[in-house]
UniProtKB/TrEMBL annotation:
InterPro entries recorded: AurF/CmlI, RNR-like
Gene3D superfamilies: Ribonucleotide Reductase, subunit A (1.10.620.20)
Species in which this protein is naturally found: Paraburkholderia caffeinilytica
Name listed for the protein in its UniProt record: Aminobenzoate oxygenase
Domain of life of the organism encoding this protein: Bacteria
Pfam families per UniProt: AurF
Amino acid sequence: MNAVAEVTDKSVVDPVSRWYAGATVRNAPRIYVPQNIAEENIFPPSRQLLAAHPLVEKLGQEAISYVLAQSTYKYMYEIGLLETRFVIDCSLKIINGEIGTDVPEEDKREAITIVIDEGYHAYVALDFIIQLKANTGIEPLSVPQTNGNLDAVHRGYEALPRSLHGTFQLLATCLAEHTLTKDLLSIGKEKEATVTFTKVMTDHVSDEGRHANYFARMLKDYWKTVGTDDQKLIGSFLPNYLRDYLAADFERQFDRDVLSQLDLTADEIDTVLQDTDERYSAAAKSYIDVTIANLVKLLDRNGILAHPETRAVFVQEGLLTV
Ligand SMILES: [Fe+2]
Ligand SMILES: [Fe+2]
């Protein structure tokens, strides 16, 4: 039984009442980016190790703010990509009958709330970017059109027959929404970031718990309608997909690009990257291990690992012990 179903107050359980009462798009005021980001950390420095390196600090507050602003742009653009290119698309397919058959209208109505919520999250992220540019005069290094997560989803489509793309999309969206919920919770707890950044994270996550529960329920019901052979095919493909989806950029191309904009020599850039690499890699590996363990539990809870053949692949890949 999930957290929603355990609540006994009917008015809180009802997804319609919950959405009207709690959705940020209906209740949250606009978030204003600080005028002077030199006075506060626009991004948590614990998530961008370059900012605290002595060679960057030596360049002064402007350089530190520049590094943190670039991480903010990247984070906000990636939220927009996930929402507009992935989650909204999946929700629209549920609404339009392209994923799932005989989906009750109540569930389609809830999928519409997700389209609205995710549209608002993408709006808040882009509003943040536009304000940050106006207040600081700092231009984003790039405007990403994709990222590692979305590339992995596209490789997933290529690896599976077309007839399974809808099933895979629902599964991949469910995995992404659970991952995002935990990521937002975690980054929202970082102590050193400005309240403005934290507010974007805590507002967003307050909607995502609802979404994660919805997609898990839809996946559990939908999976029962998928044929056994197709279930096993997708099951055997999932360990590689999970690793691909969560792969970290151990080359640190983004960090290198940011440092190249500062007044540093090539040797100094290498020094900053080398000095921070152990912490960077340890954090990335720990994140991948913890997230995969959470997602394997989610898959197990919702029946995706029910076949002995699927479990055997997960055990063989070191993702399950039994
Ligand atoms: Fe969202
Ligand atoms: Fe969501």
